Amino acid sequence: MKRLPFLFVLAFFVTGGRADAQPTPQNIPTPQIVKVGVYVSPPFVLKNDDGYSGMAVELWQKATADLSVVSEYQEFPNTADLMGAVADGRVHAAVTNLTITKARAQTVDFTQPWFDSGLRVMVHSDARGSMMALWEGLREAGHLANFAWIAAIMLVATALMTIFDRKLDAEFPKRWREGLAENLYHVISLATTGEASRKNLFGWVGRIGEAMWLLCSVAVIAYVASSITSVMTASHISNQIKSVADLQGRIVGVRAGSVAEDYLQTFKLRRRPFNHINEAAEALVKREIAAVVDDSSILEYFTHTHPHLPLDVVGNTFRSEKYGFAFTAGSALTKPVSLRIIGLQENGEVEKLKARYFGFKP
Question: What is the value of pTM for the model shown?
Answer without folding.
Answer: 0.63
